[in-house]
Write a structure and sequence with these properties.
Elements (H helix, E strand, L loop, with lengths): L1 H28 L4 H11 L14 H17 L35
Length: 110
């Protein structure tokens, strides 16, 4: 009995210790690096092809848009507490658009 209590206590303590260590580790490993992001955006920012961006928007505008996106995301409810009901699978309320060239479409029933 005492051994089982000790094992459970060690597991619970490890779990409680692991959460803050993980959060701190992520913040240390991935700091906010605006200049590095701008270099990455300049090199890989054009989504249409593999060429760098021809004209970069002003740095202050990019940072302001990123901050606005973070503020918007912070105000969104957590997925566990959504208020809108999700449609059931197969009820016809959600229809994905067809892929180009008819790929992945099923023929209509006769």
């Amino acid at each position: 009995m005492i051994r089982r209590l000790w094992v459970v206590s060690v597991l619970a303590g490890t779990a409680l210790f692991a959460v803050p260590v993980t959060v701190v580790g992520v913040h240390v490993a991935h700091p906010r690096n605006e200049s590095g992001y701008l270099v990455h955006l300049e090199q890989y920012g054009d989504r249409q092809n593999d060429r760098p961006l021809a004209l970069m928007p002003p740095t202050a505008d990019l940072v302001a848009e990123g901050d606005a996106a973070c503020d918007w995301l912070r105000e969104q409810p957590y997925a566990l507490w959504r208020h809108a009901a999700r449609p059931a699978i197969g009820d016809g309320s959600r229809v994905d658009p067809p892929l180009p060239g008819g790929v992945g479409t099923t023929p209509a029933p006769p």
